[in-house]
Design brief:
This protein has nine helices and six strands. The radius of gyration is 18 Å and the shape is globular. The chain has one domain (11-232): L-fuculose-1-phosphate Aldolase (3-Layer(aba) Sandwich). It is 39% helix and 12% strand. With 244 residues, the chain is of the alpha+beta class. It has a six-stranded antiparallel β-sheet with strand order 3-2-1-4-6-5, with helices on both faces.
């Protein structure tokens, strides 16, 4: 770990954020350097994010940029944070249950964003993670683009969120692309992977049957078997034994 980062955040958080960023090229969620993940230490009021423009195959712990949540001030190093840093920061300020944010330019999710269309719930694969459609934001105004663009991107994302942010852990910025979030950087990028998969399925489904639909009670069952107090999916004892 770079000496500038020592004492600011834990090495565990740095390693998690690095690995979460490396998921983006591994899963084909972005081309070149299009994408970023951050992870938050809420107790210290610091998040760590990918630096702007650094290729994934060169990315290391020493490149990660620590940012103060309250002010947006870079706390160490000489690299600039991702240009989307202010969007991440606004999401953290707006929702205290978020511990990670991811942004990609994955093909199918971007297609829905460019069409200005939410990703509808058409099957149980979607409902396993997203308790409802993945919303699309309104289009930013000329004024919002001209001043504080990234911060305003965060604002329209917050506008699009309904209820518990973790029930639908992602949204599409109109004309731009997907942002996802979670309790950690790992979960945030996992939701990016899921969103791209369900967006692809939705596009194929709508091509085959433009009026495709299934009952809400089926989707509710699939979401609640994985989330909430009645969840019963998986083997918690096995995960705990493995340190997960």
């Amino acid at each position: 770990m770079a000496i500038e980062l020592a004492g600011l955040v834990s090495e565990d958080l740095l390693r998690e954020v690095l690995e979460a960023n490396l998921v983006i090229p591994r899963e084909g969620l972005a081309t070149l350097t299009w994408g970023n993940v951050s992870g938050l230490d809420r107790e210290r009021g610091i998040y760590v994010i990918k630096p702007s423009g650094v290729p994934y195959d060169e990315l290391s712990l020493a490149h990660l940029v620590p940012v103060e949540v309250e002010t947006g001030r870079v706390l160490a190093g000489d690299l600039k944070p991702s240009t989307d840093s202010e969007t991440h920061r606004l999401l953290y300020l707006s929702h205290p249950d978020l511990g990670g944010v991811a942004h990609t330019h994955s093909t199918y999710a971007v297609s829905f964003a460019q069409a200005g269309r939410a990703v509808p719930v058409l099957g149980t694969t979607h409902a396993d993670t997203f308790n409802g459609p993945v919303p699309v934001t309104r289009t930013l105004t000329a004024e919002e683009c001209a001043r504080d663009y990234e911060l305003n991107t965060g604002r329209v994302l917050v506008e699009s969120m309904r209820g518990d942010a973790l029930d639908v852990p992602g949204a599409l910025v109109a004309g731009h692309g997907p942002f996802t979030w979670g309790a950690s950087a790992t979960k945030a990028v996992e939701h990016s992977v899921v969103l791209e998969a369900v967006a692809q399925m939705a596009l194929h489904t709508l091509a085959l049957n433009p009026t495709a639909a299934s009952p809400d009670h089926l989707f509710e069952r699939h979401f609640t078997r994985k989330h909430g107090p009645g969840a019963y999916y998986g083997n918690p004892d096995r995960a705990a034994a493995a340190g997960v």
